[in-house]
Amino acid sequence: MMNLGQLKDEGPVRSAPGFCFEYYDQIGSTNTHGLHKAREGHPGNLWVRSDIQLSGRGRRGRAWTSETGNLFASVLLRVGVQNEKIVQLPFVAALALGEAIERATGAHNLVQLKWPNDVLIDGQKVSGILLESESGPNGELCLVCGFGVNVSHHPDLGDYAVTDLRSMGYMCEPQQVFDALAQSFARWLETWKAASGFEEIRSAWLRRAVGRGKPIRVRLSNEEFSGVFMDIDQMGRLIVKMDHGGERLVTAGDVFFS
């Protein structure tokens, strides 16, 4: 593949039995490589890590600064059926990462979550999560969930307050965050697979949710509106109480708190 650097290490993930990993010095995009491995027939449960991404990207095609010192990792999953539960996976990812950051830093009640999958410390964004998928040859869904964690430095994102763990006084390394993330993600993924698993995930996510019951501004691709953040439903959609009465469900968008 283009932009694929030297393979530094590979093997089983010690903190997450049943998962394996490939670790590169540089790569175009860990998500792109994960999907490439899926097309080659990889069975999944594969983590792809890199010290540097040359073509990192965030939600809605935004560029993602990917210099050495931060964590860049994606996990490839093969999901047997293309069902509507897939939209719940961003909450699995955010919960796992929030838990992992607290374990790596040794700080309890440090992280808050912002819909749909932002991870915040003191109201400042500390990571990015991007899920991408395509259909496999047998009707299954090949899905990659990419994580970019600001461990040592952070970009300027304009509308968003951003930080990194080191700036907040936490001297952990990307490897520590990865080990904790792989472990937490495997555990929450198993919860999600259970018949009523999302109810536990939803409750855990809401306990960490920032801004519940407070005024919110929602920016969609073609409009903006204001209301109050009330809840999320069983599909992870944001439930907003409108200023003029009634409720509105939001599937995708950017949210801002006053």
Automatic annotation (TrEMBL):
Domain BPL/LPL catalytic: from-to ranges: 5-193
GO molecular function: ligase activity
Pfam family, one: BPL_LplA_LipB
Superkingdom per UniProt: Bacteria
Keywords: ATP-binding, Biotin, Ligase, Nucleotide-binding
SUPFAM superfamilies the UniProt entry points to: C-terminal domain of transcriptional repressors (SSF50037), Class II aaRS and biotin synthetases (SSF55681)
Protein's UniProt keywords contain Nucleotide-binding: yes
Coiled-coil intervals: none
Catalytic activity: biotin + L-lysyl-[protein] + ATP = N(6)-biotinyl-L-lysyl-[protein] + AMP + diphosphate + H(+)
Record EC number: 6.3.4.15
This protein's name: biotin--[biotin carboxyl-carrier protein] ligase
Organism: Pseudovibrio ascidiaceicola
Lineage summary: Bacteria, Pseudomonadati, Pseudomonadota, Alphaproteobacteria, Hyphomicrobiales
